Amino acid sequence: MTKSISILATFLTVISFTSKAQTETIKRDRFTLNITNPSEIKTEQTKNELVDAFFETYPQFARADGYRTKRDVTLTIKPDLNKNVMAKEGEVILNGNWINSAPKNIKNTIQSALSSNWVSSDTTTKKGYTLIFVNKDPAIAKDLQSRLTQTFFAVYPKLVKTYNKKAKREVLFVVDTAYKAVAEASGGRILFSAGYMKKNNTDVDVVTHEGMHVVQEYGYGSGPVWLTEGIADYVRYKFGYDNIGSKWSLPAFSDKHSYKNSYRITARFFVWLEDNVKKGIIKTLDDQLRRKAYTENSWKEITGQTLDELWSSYAKSPDVKLTYQKAVWK
Ligand SMILES: [Zn+2]
Q: May I ask which residue range the UniProt record assigns to the signal sequence (predicted)?
């Protein structure tokens, strides 16, 4: 009896020593998995399946989880965990009995443990367009989610058809509590600030402005930021689903303005250009920016006048007739 206890004690010491010493680190793409006690996984095959399952699920989760989700993840095996998997950003804990029972559903089990961190994740497909809507804020009303979704399906397909037929057909919305600005788009993901959307719950055409950024796909260095943002707000003016409901409008012209002011000030200038100088100029510029063919000379090539000449003509008679849409909500 005494002897067997002493053998067991020695054995435990060795395990705990090696498990500390043997944290196994695996990097794939821009993600790092640190298995803190790999010796708790009985076979190499199980370990390989687990590692593959992790890298098939966690990067997707991180993308949909929103703002600055951890890319460095600790994975620990615990023999006495009361469920098979607990997972959140940066941390995965597995039940040792479960993982060593050669489970067939490692990937799905990790995936559902990760998505339980969200309030909801809904996927809607209509006429070839898919919206995945991840909400991380329990205080976001279903009504707001529904209006953002309706705006997406009313506007985004039109932007794709008008400006870039190769644009993504699948878009991910993430309403994130950790993100404090208004909204931003990168790749096919649009990140919304939960705080902003709750305070400004009529401002659904954030979807239109950011949706245009998804369609633009200019990449870095294609043109000046004021031009990219001016086009996105011009598109919000032209295609906005409920600019009346959100009381969004283009500001009156002021001689203190410049086209470099970006956003709505630039957008108003673009409305004037379309109406008075060259119909379709924004579509042409958008196309050039995507093809990396835009230069300062583009203005002269398209209209016969330089950008500064165009702006001074605008400043001399800046009147435009503006019309806005009002949504009918379902
Ligand atoms: Zn923007």
A: 1-21
